[in-house]
């Protein structure tokens, strides 16, 4: 095949960005910022608190800038670029110190890591800030695994009743942050936890932010298939690192009067490893 | 025999995208036909690209080849024309589908032809060539098996590679029984033989053969056409006149470029290492040759492509080599099928190319009909950033149209002062910490007052309940008084 890979580099026109190299991870820092995300803030604050607890248990000081709100993704994906940019502009200065920014959502982390640079492409000073933020943004599971190098194996695990879980990973987390791999590795460390696959596991749950209200029929069909697959997997509970998907999946399960529910990975990890609220 | 799919609901363009999608979602047979077929295509593609590193390097190369071709598009088209002309192929230029149809009609009339046999061509679907020529009293018969089935049932293709994929074998069996008067059989091989026997005679009767083009090679003036049924070779070599129709973006610089592109195309489309037939057409029959058409024409159609070409970001749309992998992997396409889109090109590629062809105002819901899950961009063999382009089209859709400097026809078709105001409010709330605090305080402390119905959301979900206290509150308390 190698003969086929001759140099066909184009001389103009937009070219796909070069493939990302595997990410290099820094040493465990003394301090980090937590960006909680708007959905966690209002609907899943315990996921944020459990993230803080997990990080503190690793000996890290967590800082939560009170000025934070939303990463801007809802407006960005709805075509309201100006509004998204204004909100992004309000988040960027919150992270003054050169500490990592940890986000308990792959989708919002992906916004920091990939799309702020698009928003500020034409403002050199802001672009530089956006690039620096991208460099030090980590999705929570990724940070626990590769920066904190957590090891739950052999540690005293409080709630060790056997449990089967299904892991759902948001699409952006999967495709922009590889979160599904991190989630799997973390779950594999837990005593008594069996992770089961579900049908069409890599397929979208149908949330897609404003998609779920603009195209309720299609979104509804997608979440119906997703919840059916999750139920048929035999899992006792669902774990996900994205609260947008969890809101979608749990809301649908509740509407269907099903008992199954999803929980944020941070809360699940914290509870399974003996943590108390 | 099962009842017909209620395709009228799905194919009726006037009904609008959302009602058509709703009708498709409520059709269990359609849902199962597509799910089964798309699952199988995804599996085949995955198997064909078992070496992820090779796949990624090849995709990168494919992207570079297409970008290089587009970067010199006007020049390459001139070279293509010059070399085709030198080879004896007559080249025609059409800005609109109506011009393209007129060109085809004039060629047909020059030869006083009555019967046309067609190989598969999506550009001819853009032109609605069958319908147009039918109106002129000219019979236009599809020879690709899928296209033939669709034509027999008076439908349009539901997939760009597999036009009849919305039908299962039983439905095809009933169709053949009804339209061809043959005995009902669900044996796929037998069905194909029935179709082939019917078509075979038509190749010899036809005065004109029409085909599409996969790659037009500028360097040599060669038209490259891939197919699996042999009907493409028959259509382009048996009738005395061959008319090829294609879009202006199909040009590539040289023959060498076609090797990786072919590999990407056939593996992405059907998981095939290569198609059964690869036709390289480089002119009409020469004096000492025994077969081949006496005349070859190429119609190069713009139909909105130059609009996409004029914007560096949207230009990437034209990288497309029409493999269909984006629709095979799309959770939306898999559920609603191709007809619900109401246009020639369905699925993710349809959503980004159709607005250039028909204007954004005609397909205002297309850019929103995606969860931006990214599956399409992940599999695209030429790395079109489809989710980014969908987001860009949303911007063009909701902005106020700019008649002085328009980006595209029909821009601003979803402009809404009310929605803009809502997003301004959202922006204010998320840029003013005090406002945000007040909002989250209200949302959490007054959560008992939340409405039980939240419009479209509560059709498929229970209403979400805000937590009693926000993370802002809990984190501040915790971090100020660490335990």
Automatic annotation (TrEMBL), chain A:
Coiled coil: none annotated. It comes from marine sediment metagenome. This is Cysteine-rich domain-containing protein. GO terms for cellular component: cytosol. Residues 34-113, 165-249 form the Cysteine-rich domain. PANTHER family: LACTATE UTILIZATION PROTEIN A (PTHR30296:SF0), UNCHARACTERIZED PROTEIN YKGE (PTHR30296). InterPro entries: Cys_rich_dom. The lineage of its organism: unclassified sequences, metagenomes, ecological metagenomes. Pfam families: CCG (PF02754). GO terms for molecular function: oxidoreductase activity.
TrEMBL record, chain B:
Residues 310-339 form the 4Fe-4S ferredoxin-type domain. InterPro entries: 4Fe4S_Fe-S-bd, 4Fe4S_Fe_S_CS, FTHF_cligase-like_sf, Helical_ferredxn, LUD_dom, LutB/LldF, LutB_C, NagB/RpiA_transferase-like. Pfam families: Fer4_8, LUD_dom, LutB_C. Gene3D superfamilies: Alpha-helical ferredoxin, NagB/RpiA/CoA transferase-like. This is 4Fe-4S ferredoxin-type domain-containing protein. The lineage of its organism: unclassified sequences, metagenomes, ecological metagenomes. One of its GO terms (biological process) is lactate metabolic process. Keywords: 4Fe-4S, Electron transport, Iron, Iron-sulfur, Metal-binding, Repeat, Transport. One of its GO terms (molecular function) is 4 iron, 4 sulfur cluster binding. It comes from marine sediment metagenome. PANTHER family: LACTATE UTILIZATION PROTEIN B.
């Amino acid at each position: 095949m190698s003969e086929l890979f001759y140099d066909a580099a184009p001389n103009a026109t937009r070219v796909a960005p070069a493939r990302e190299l595997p990410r290099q991870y820094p040493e465990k820092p003394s301090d980090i910022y937590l960006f909680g995300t708007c959905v966690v803030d209002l609907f899943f604050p315990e996921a944020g608190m459990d993230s803080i607890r997990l990080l503190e248990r690793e000996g890290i000081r967590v800082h939560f800038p009170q000025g934070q709100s939303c990463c801007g993704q809802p407006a960005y994906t709805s075509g309201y670029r100006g509004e998204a940019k204004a909100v992004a502009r309000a988040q960027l200065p919150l992270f003054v110190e050169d500490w990592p920014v940890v986000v308990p959502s792959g989708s919002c982390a992906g916004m920091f890591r990939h799309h702020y640079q698009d928003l500020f492409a034409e403002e050199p000073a802001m672009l530089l800030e956006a690039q620096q933020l991208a460099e030090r943004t980590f999705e929570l599971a990724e940070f626990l695994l590769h920066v904190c190098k957590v090891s739950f194996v052999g540690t005293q695990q409080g709630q060790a009743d056997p449990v089967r879980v299904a892991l759902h990973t948001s699409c952006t987390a999967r495709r922009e942050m590889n979160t599904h791999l991190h989630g799997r590795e973390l779950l594999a460390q837990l005593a008594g936890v069996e992770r089961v696959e579900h049908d069409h596991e890599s397929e979208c749950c149908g949330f897609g932010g404003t998609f779920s209200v603009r195209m309720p029929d299609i979104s509804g069909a997608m979440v119906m298939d997703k919840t059916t697959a999750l139920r048929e997997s035999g899992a006792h509970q669902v774990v996900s690192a994205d609260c947008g998907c969890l809101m979608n999946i749990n809301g649908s399960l509740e509407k269907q009067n099903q008992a199954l529910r999803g929980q944020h990975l941070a809360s699940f990890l914290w509870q399974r490893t003996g943590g108390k609220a | 025999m099962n009842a017909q799919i209620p395709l009228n609901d799905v194919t009726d363009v006037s009904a609008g995208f959302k009602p058509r999608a709703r009708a498709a979602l409520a059709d269990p047979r359609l849902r199962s036909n597509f799910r089964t077929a798309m699952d199988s295509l995804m599996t085949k593609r995955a198997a064909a690209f078992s070496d992820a590193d090779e796949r990624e390097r090849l995709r990168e190369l494919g992207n570079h080849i297409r970008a290089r071709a587009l970067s010199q598009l006007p020049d390459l088209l001139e070279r293509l024309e010059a070399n085709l002309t030198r080879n004896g192929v007559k080249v025609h230029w059409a800005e609109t589908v109506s011009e393209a149809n007129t060109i085809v009609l004039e060629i047909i009339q020059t030869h006083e032809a009555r019967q046309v046999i067609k190989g598969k061509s999506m550009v001819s679907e853009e032109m609605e060539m069958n319908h147009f020529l039918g109106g002129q009293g000219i019979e236009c018969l599809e020879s690709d098996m899928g296209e033939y089935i669709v034509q027999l049932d008076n439908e349009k293709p539901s997939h760009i590679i597999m036009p009849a994929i919305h039908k299962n074998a039983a439905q095809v069996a009933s169709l053949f029984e009804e339209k061809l008067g043959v005995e009902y059989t669900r044996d796929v091989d037998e069905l194909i033989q029935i179709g082939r026997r019917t078509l075979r005679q038509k190749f010899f009767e036809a005065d004109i053969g029409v085909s599409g083009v996969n790659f037009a090679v500028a360097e040599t003036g060669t038209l490259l056409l891939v197919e699996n049924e042999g009907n493409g070779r028959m259509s382009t070599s048996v009738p005395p006149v061959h008319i090829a129709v294609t879009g202006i973006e199909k040009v590539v610089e040289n023959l060498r470029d076609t090797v990786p592109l072919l590999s990407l195309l056939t593996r992405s489309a059907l998981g095939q290492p290569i198609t059964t037939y690869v036709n390289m057409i480089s002119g009409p029959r020469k004096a000492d040759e025994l077969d081949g058409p006496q005349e070859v024409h190429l119609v190069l159609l713009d139909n909105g492509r130059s609009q996409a070409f004029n914007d560096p970001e949207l230009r990437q749309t034209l990288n497309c080599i029409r493999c269909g992998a984006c629709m095979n992997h799309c959770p939306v396409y898999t559920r609603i099928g191709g007809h619900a889109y109401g246009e020639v090109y369905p699925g993710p590629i349809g959503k980004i190319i159709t607005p250039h062809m028909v204007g954004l105002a005609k397909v205002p819901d297309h850019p929103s009909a995606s969860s931006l899950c990214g599956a399409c961009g992940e599999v695209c063999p030429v790395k079109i950033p489809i989710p980014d382009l969908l987001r860009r089209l949303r911007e063009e859709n909701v902005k106020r149209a700019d008649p002085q400097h328009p980006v595209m026809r029909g821009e601003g078709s979803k402009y809404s002062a009310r929605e803009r105001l809502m997003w301004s409010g959202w922006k204010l709330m998320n840029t003013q910490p005090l406002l945000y605090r007040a909002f989250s305080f209200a949302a959490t402390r007054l959560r008992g007052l939340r409405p039980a119905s939240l419009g479209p959301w509560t059709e498929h979900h229970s209403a979400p309940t805000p937590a009693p206290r926000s993370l802002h509150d809990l984190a501040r308390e915790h971090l100020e008084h660490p335990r």
